Amino acid sequence: MAHIKLPEFSDMSPKIQKLVKPRLEKNGTLDETTRLLSLREDIFLATNNMVINFLITKTELPYSTKERIAVLVSMENGCKICVNAHKTLAKRLGMSDEQVEQILGGIDTIECGEEEKLLLKFCLRASRKDAYKILKSDIDEVKNMGYSDTQIFEAVAITGYFNYINTITNVFGLEDEA
What we know:
AhpD-like; 9 helices; globular
């Protein structure tokens, strides 16, 4: 149970209601993350834009890489609600049950190229409090595996998003979503 009172659909701004109504109609309920974010329209809209631009929209990184980052960073941050949500989203975006299970086993169990494993390890390192210790040589190592500056930037932006959303869901004690 959340540590603060979460708004119901009727308490949300009309703009948020319009955006979440399809989810409510499809699922019969709204998840706690959506309800928490709807406390503030500005924060809800900013977060929604990040989800759309980082995770849903086709970008330079494949969906599988983006979802691997999502799940791995959320596991690192102990955010069960985000791990569960992104296991589901990964499947909707085309990953198999086996591929999702591999992520849960950690980077070394994921069947992907060594270049992607290095990028994923880099993202986990970037998610930690000592990310300021990352050097140009660390980024160059990822670039030498074939990633462009903009792909590395995208991966780090996704990592930063998950540090943000994991913090919000963990601090306010949101339950695991089904």
